[in-house]
Design brief:
This protein has about 325 residues and is an alpha/beta fold. It has helices at about 20-30, 60-70, 90-95, 115-125, 130-140, 160-170, 190-205, 215-220, 240-245, 290-300, 310-320, and strands spanning about 1-15, 30-45, 50-55, 75-80, 95-100, 175-180, 210, 225-230, 235-240, 250-255, 270-275, 280-285, 305. Strands 5-6-7-3-8-9 form a six-stranded mixed beta sheet, sandwiched between helices. Strands 11-12-10-13 form a four-stranded antiparallel beta sheet, covered by helices on one side. Strands 2-1-4 form a three-stranded antiparallel beta sheet. The longest helix has 18 residues, at about 190-205. The model has no long low-confidence stretch (mean pLDDT about 90). The structure holds adenosine-5'-triphosphate (ATP). Adenosine-5'-triphosphate (ATP) binds near residues 11, 61, 62 and 63. Adenosine-5'-triphosphate binds next to strand 1, strand 2 and helix 2. Keywords: Antibiotic resistance, ATP-binding, Nucleotide-binding, Transport. One of its GO terms (molecular function) is ATP binding.
Length: about 325
């Protein structure tokens, strides 16, 4: 469905010294600096997969998304999406894909009402009257749009714009969806509506989705697979569950022992959390069996659980220290 081979993108960014004089000088003599945004990325995505595409700020996620959706022409490499070269921008390709950007969910005229924007989209994408009625009914229901339909786009809040933007995009049922930070800036409940909607949309339609987000809640609830990039290079591509095992060399043991004395807890690892008589202890992965046995033998334990470290912590560590 999506094939990316040896993808590279270098921007030529204009630069100049500070000050008015320097600004005037650039009118006759421009200087540029090369910025490597994507540096040799290769991956495949199969039909129906929902993949989280993550990385720190400036990693190259948006650039890759723009190339895959046909907005940018890469410097090097080959890409095939639905059998098309995206930047050729054939109508048959554009009608089957969509790029939704959380920072700018609606691209059309802001004077139109939401319903008129949807009708405009119907014309642009040649959606039949029946499909329009059916899809609109379904999207209105799932995205809680009824009250928004008669309102002007310009007067919508960011969360409302996102919901309306998703409806406009999904009205023509694209097979491939590129979502660039779909919950950015949304409050907890608006983000939850968007997440719930995307999950059910993916399950019902079997759409292929590539999603970037800085909120691990998004990727954890939606994406069984993660692709992690940093400074334009691929760092990890695999199941989300295996990421912690590969990248975090420890597990957490949560023990609850109401009758234990505070100094009775054996030194099996670093205590990272303490709440009354419950301790969370960080233990090296290959020490877990030994540590658990000691805890069970030496403490009056009522509950013990071995947990993977939270995804946030793993990702934060990877962003700060890189992949070993
Ligand atoms: N039009 C452009 N001209 C020059 N450099 C650019 C341009 N767009 C992006 N860049 C640079 O390319 C690099 C990758 O940017 P990109 O927006 O793809 O990163 P990102 O992973 O989406 O980041 P974020 O999480 O902050 O949105 C950055 O160093 C950025 O400054």
């Amino acid at each position: 469905m999506i094939e990316v081979r040896d993808l590279r993108m270098t921007y030529r960014a204009p630069i100049r010294d500070a000050g008015l004089k320097a600004a005037l000088r650039t009118l006759v003599h421009r200087r540029y600096q090369d910025v490597k945004a994507v540096d040799d990325i290769t991956f495949d995505i199969q039909a129906g997969e929902v993949v989280g595409f993550i990385g720190p700020n400036g990693a190259g996620k948006t650039t890759t998304m723009k190339i895959l959706s046909g907005i940018l022409h890469p410097t090097e490499g080959t890409v095939s999406v639905l059998g098309h070269v995206p930047w050729q921008r054939k109508t048959t390709f554009l009608r089957r894909i969509a790029l939704v950007r959380g920072s700018q969910p609606i691209g059309g005229p802001v004077e139109l009402t939401v319903l008129d924007s949807l009708r405009y989209q119907q014309l642009l994408y040649d959606v039949s009257a029946k499909d329009f009625r059916d899809n609109l009914e379904e999207l209105t229901d799932l995205l809680e749009l009824a009250k928004l339909l008669p309102r002007q786009v310009r007067a919508l809040s960011l969360g409302e714009r996102m919901r309306a933007g998703l409806a406009m995009t999904l009205l023509y049922k694209p097979d491939v969806l590129f979502l660039d930070e779909p919950t950015i800036g949304l409050d907890v409940s608006a983000a939850a509506i968007v997440r719930r909607f995307l999950k059910s949309y993916a399950e019902r339609t079997g759409a292929t989705i590539l999603l970037t987000s800085h909120y691990m809640g998004d990727v954890q609830s939606l994406c069984p697979r993660l692709i992690l990039i940093d400074k334009g290079s691929l760092q990890y591509d695999g199941p989300i569950d295996a990421l912690a095992a590969k990248l975090a060399p420890y597990k957490l043991i949560r023990v609850s022992a109401p009758d234990a004395k505070p100094d009775q807890v054996p030194q099996v690892g670093e205590v990272v959390e303490k709440d009354g008589t419950t301790w969370v202890i960080r233990v090296a992965r290959d020490e877990v069996a030994h540590a658990t046995t000691r805890l069970l033998n030496e403490l009056p334990i009522v509950d013990l659980a071995v947990e993977e470290p939270p995804l946030e912590n793993v990702i934060d560590r990877v962003y700060r220290e890189g992949v070993a």
